Known about the structure:
5% helix; ten-stranded antiparallel sheet
Amino acid sequence: xxxxxxxxxxxxxxxxxxxxxxxxxxxxxxxxxxxxxxxxxxxxxxxxxxxxxxxxxxxxxxxxxxxxxxxxxxxxxxxxxxxxxxxxxxxxxxxxxxxxxxxxxxxxxxxxxxxxxxxxxxxxxxxxxxxxxxxxxxxxxxxxxxxxxxxxxxxxxxxxxxxxxxxxxxxxxxxxxxxxxxxxxxxxxxxxxxxxxxxxxxxxxxxxxxxxxxxxxxxxxxxxxxxxxxxxxxxxxxxxxxxxxxxxxxxxxxxxxxxxxxxxxxxxxxxxxxxxxxxxxxxxxxxxxxxxxxxxxxxxxxxxxxxxxxxxxxxxxxxxxxxxxxxxxxxxxxxxxxx
Length: 339
């Protein structure tokens, strides 16, 4: 047990170390930050990314992405820019990222994208003290399977500063979200991913959830659903592999149902959003081709948590503070690709 605690502590100190080393098998890696307005249906998402195609590490690039969501105005602004990797710097021993003139440092990020249709700039600070959340068992972060890894480096991050969206400055004051890190040799074949940093009726609770299917040769795995909920000073973890395979996870455009249980608790939930709450993005896949990412940060979520040990049942809800992404090869979802 002590050894596992030591391993977890060591990994937690390295969650933001860049994994890319110029490997020829292909690689993607991103540091992304997102947050929601405390009371309004507004959110932002900013992503600093490495993309290195399989067998051609000399063609690696850096990508900057940014989205501003505003459901009140029914307006979502997306911008993306690509840079030669010689203009990028990703530190392997700390959180220090530079893509062009954009930077990401511990507790600070700034940058600008002057896209073809829209421009976005940001100057933000963030802070928080919550420990990282691992959606996979610790041992799976060390091996080749699964090909894609993700970790919430800083849950419940508090952001302040400003965004400038198509020339209009938007003040950011105490928006709550997270700083995240993911990497791998290929994107997950099909997944739904969700996150809530503060529910409307439980502002200190944090949810991380994913349902994924992997292609192994000509075969597909059943849906694998992983869930972590921090709620009222407890962490409810539903991430053991057998448990994740037995869990329920069913999603379509644009709704998702999931459920899991362990010896102590049972959790069920739904995440959904209308089509117009999504932005479509094209992600390069290191082995070749592209994936479609349907991205919303203003979805709704309802959770039911039954704690058998405490003999309590809680309902957690948010109208528009949930992150909801679907990654797919299917192009019949009806969401325009904006970047």
